[in-house]
Amino acid sequence: MKPSETTGGGAGWNAGRIPDQRGRVFVVTGANSGLGLATARALAGRGARVVLAVRDERRGREAAARIAAELADPGADERLEVRLLDLADLDAVRAFAGRLRADHPRLDVLVNNAGVFAPPRTLSPQGHERQFAVNHLGHFALTGLLLDALAAGRDPRVVTVSSLNHRKGRIRFDDLDGARGYAPMAFYDQSKLANALFGRELHRRLAAAGSPVRSLLAHPGYTATGLQTGGPTGLTRLLFGRLLRPLAQRPADGALPQLYAATEPAARGGEFIGPDGRGELRGAPTRVRLAPTAQDAAAARRLWALSEELTGVRFGLAETPDAA
Description:
By secondary structure, the chain is an alpha/beta fold. The chain has one domain: NAD(P)-binding Rossmann-like Domain (Rossmann fold), CATH 3.40.50. Helices cover 40% and strands 11% of the residues. The protein has an 8-stranded mixed sheet with strand order 3-2-1-4-5-6-7-8, with helices on both faces. Helix 5 links the parallel strand 5 and strand 6. Helix 4 packs across helix 10 (297-311) and helix 5 (184-209) crosses helix 10. The longest helix is centred in the middle third of the chain and has 26 residues, at 184-209. The model is unreliable at 4-10 (pLDDT under 50).
């Protein structure tokens, strides 16, 4: 049965179908707004302890207070933790992971949700192009640093949020930082393809190692969030931040695929979950297909090796053959 199908015949999978999450610990990056905020709210509403990993601690605390006020649950505020995380800075990622593991030696789900979208070319503290640094390298490092804690969890999962744009992407192995030529949207597409390659390769390696951790991918379709207005400039900002915005779905709806991937018992490692509507732009969660470029095992292995080199984070998971 597809995620969007129901035995009752009618509405598709929605947040009301999230199982009870009491006793489980979720980490959601970029949880102070947009898809991350909607994800944290839905999980907290089902009893989960949620770590809101945010770049702006003040905005994170405001988001946590808003969630607690909206939920008719006097204990909700105690289950919401706000922690500072700058995914662009690999030193900050290491510090965050170290503190989190000290306080939570067992984690259940990591939702790699945060992202930046089509900004002017800037570099991270370690010299990486910002979209590649935040959207891919930061999440790659964070996942590797938390993998042991996740392996100790109950039904542990890593959910990496990609995009429809992964289908347009290509990995510029000879120009990852855009020094030879930078186009904001092309480098966003590259980062989203990197997410997809990483999520699938992580699945292959975890399965081969017999790990209890499952890796899943999700995408939100076309959803109105702060990404479209906070990063791009010029025509890109006008197009995505204003002209097309009325066509976009709400963050609460756009978050459903990643919530399904994070909580649904029927979800399986390696699956890609997206909206079931026309063009996968909106709708209830369903299993969707990755682009052929995202299923290229050789490219995934090359990206994995390069990511380990650039981040200094080793997962200890062996390579898998193309057919895995």
